[in-house]
């Protein structure tokens, strides 16, 4: 066995491997910046046609109409004339496994799931690879923040929120351990396989599975009520659910699931709840509003789940829930989720095409998501005092034809928009221009 391992190791060193480095993270902001004359979309529904956006030491210091203010000549070190362009707050990708898996077919690069059913103590952030090549493909579309979320089990673990230009997970952190993720059991199951699905059947273990979740929450809460001789790290990690410092993200789509999940959280005194997925949330929107529960809506570029549903229902869902007074964000989990996260702004664009106005659609991936992740005091809108995480686009950022970034900033740092793809584009342009 030893000689075999040595042989494999030697063989690995003999094989030439071309490693493409991630773009170097930008240094801390040292010079103040003023962006003038752009159309500023503040992320809260407000638009300033000829704006002045200033920031210093990583924080926004000025948001105003450039026609109504006067600034000293040396008020800012650098001025960017963005006439004819648009400024947006950085987009936020929630419920993402970005940085947890690099190549799906290579198991050593896959660290999104742990063994076991109840893992609230599993912290996704320590497995986050800040040097993932996938990350740099998101930034040119304006996605600058993400919630890194584990998968698997009944309680998959604890997520954290990061900015997408860093040397390490410690550098990346915006909010550590923001919430715990519960995968609520389905009330129905489909037999067969994905390529040959069978009939839908009732989940006979549904009541038992809910009781298991309830027992876990009761025992977790009881752990804090009386001193224990032995430490229980699993129970300890749930403390934030009961004191309101963490959010319980409930992953559920069915109407019955959602109703039962709400009752479960009420019974156990869990203060902050967000629904993830929520395909049938529109059926019980009044209940969600009554309990102050927002929705991170499942991927809207999808087909209806039932044959008798409107083919455009996934596109209309954000409009339906918004009209009911629900705070709605967009998430993109599912097949090819990491590499397709770059399409998040275009999911919002589809929602705009099916009922929402453009500024409402923008809120789905900025201020609304920031509220649902409890980071709205730091980002999600262009407001003084918040992080200077924003970008300049030549056109409408929700339209894939015109969303062309010229500059992007994370906490005031001007970041690189280069990717492996942009470098190849330049390389082959030069090749064909030579002819």
TrEMBL record:
Residues 335-407 form the Amidohydrolase-related domain. This is Amidohydrolase. One of its GO terms (molecular function) is hydrolase activity, acting on carbon-nitrogen (but not peptide) bonds. It comes from the Bacteria. It comes from Flavobacterium hydatis (Cytophaga aquatilis). Keywords: Hydrolase, Signal. Gene3D superfamilies: Metal-dependent hydrolases, Urease, subunit C, domain 1. Residues 1-21 form the signal peptide. Pfam families: Amidohydro_1 (PF01979). Transmembrane segments: none annotated. Coiled coil: none annotated. InterPro entries: Amidohydro-rel (IPR006680), Metal-dep_hydrolase_composite (IPR011059), Metal_Hydrolase (IPR032466), Metallo-dep_Hydrolase (IPR051781).
